[in-house]
Amino acid sequence: MNRKPIYVTQPSLAPLDEYIKLLEGVWERGILTHNGPLVQQFEKDLCRKLDVSNFVAVSNGTIALQMAIKALELKGEIITSPFTWIATISAIKWEGCTPVFCDIDPETLNIDPDKIEALITQKTVAIMPVHVFGNACDVASIEAIAKKYNLKIIYDAAHAIGSTYNGKSLLEYGDISATSLHATKLLNTAEGGGCITTNKYLQEKLKRIRFFGHNDSKDVVEDGFNGKMTEVHAALGIANLKYYDEVLNDRKEKYRKYKNYLSNIAGIKFQKIKHGEPNCSYFPVIFESEEKLFAADEEFNKNQIFPRRYFYPSVNTYTKITSYKETSVSENISRRILCLPLYWDLTEEELIRTTKILKTIA
Ligand SMILES: Cc1ncc(COP(=O)(O)O)c(C=O)c1O
Prior knowledge:
alpha/beta; 7-stranded mixed β-sheet; 14 strands; single chain; binds pyridoxal-5'-phosphate
């Protein structure tokens, strides 16, 4: 049977006519960027929806991470996770800091707080943990370490819109959280991102950094750059935000179904949720061996299903990472992990078909 391919993800998109309606306003006003009315509306709507005190919308999640480092004026070593997308590391390097890799917890896949203190040196200025697949880090332990050593915390919250910790948005933790609104994320603006902080002074500083470092009197008072979100992207964000609750609930429902269907397969493990409530935006499975993963991937591909090795490889093993330091758990997990298709348009039949294939292999 000739079936349509099933990819690991597909963007959640509002009806096109609703997006076009917003674009008509953009055309009428002739304002395309520069903190325009739709960017401001998007920021406000998002704060209300996520119940966060502020959201500084920017052009992508990588820039959001760089802006967070700039706003905190960090220079030195930043302890981070090797089980992440390369953007976490490139942001640190572009800002002239040095990434120091701390291995992960094999169950939560997040930075292992018990391994952080041994990596702290005179040069350490911050910890940048990643809420991997929207699963909250051990925020309390990380905060305690940061307090003890007077370190800043920037959360790479690229995956974390919709996740909560202690009953409030996970984005409200750390000195600054940086999130992504990339096409693959639960909420998307095609490309986009944002910085979230409860500190009013940092909020204003982030806005200046986003706009070339200018203040209201046109002086340049920060080391800024162009981090602005456009009106065209904000319009998509506003349109998509209307469907945010439905999309979030749909992910949670499909995540639950995957878990139910796959619960009695001995050969696979799931990411463990130890803190907070995740947004369920990804469904990773961990195989016993890389060979098993290859076998499953081959069988999936034969059936036009394309899950994704994510994150692979462990970023500390890339050529451009100049000082390789082993992180055995991250390296091992990254060889054995596969994210299954999970998105709004994925049908029940497609989800069940995916689980059946996995059952024949794992
Ligand atoms: C963990 C992590 N951090 C940062 C980013 C960068 O976000 P963006 O693609 O919006 O620049 C990503 C992107 O997927 C990511 O997965």
